[in-house]
Amino acid sequence: MKKFTSLVLATVLSCMMGITAFAAGSSPEISGVVTEINKAVDKNGNAVEVTLKQVADEKLVSDIKENFKSVLEAAGIEVTKGMEVVDVKDVSVPEGTEFPVTITFKVAGVTKDTKVEVLHYTGTEWEVVKSEAGEGTITATFNSLSPVAFVIDKDTMSPVGSTSTEAPRTGMGMAVPTAIVIGAVAVIGFVALGKKKVR
Question: What CA–CA distances, in Å, run from 151 to 32, 42, 61, 111, 133?
Answer without folding.
Answer: 9, 24, 12, 14, 11
